[in-house]
Design a protein that fits this description.
The protein has 4 helices and no strands. By secondary structure, the protein is an all-alpha fold.
Length: 82
């Protein structure tokens, strides 16, 4: 499987997860792939990925960029601390 095929497969998996009630089961890898732009996503999907990183607490173990971004998103009301 080449990189393009892999990206398409990941994107299909993400799309399936985000459009079902099982969106909370998205993996950290998938969330980061969305955020980093490795797979195409809508703004709604990107925000769901950020929300997942916040909900799981993973965002606090990542690089400072992620922590600054999550603070900005919370301040803007785009994601929420639950």
């Amino acid at each position: 499987m080449n990189q393009q095929e892999f990206n398409k497969a990941v994107e299909a998996d993400i799309q399936a997860l985000l459009h079902t009630k099982q969106a909370a089961t998205i993996s950290v890898y998938d969330a980061i792939s969305i955020i980093e732009g490795d797979v195409q996503s809508t703004e709604e999907e990107a925000l769901a990925a950020w929300q997942h990183l916040l909900d799981t607490g993973v965002v606090w173990r990542l690089q400072g960029y992620y922590q600054r971004q999550i603070h900005a998103l919370v301040d803007a009301g785009l994601v929420e601390v639950r």
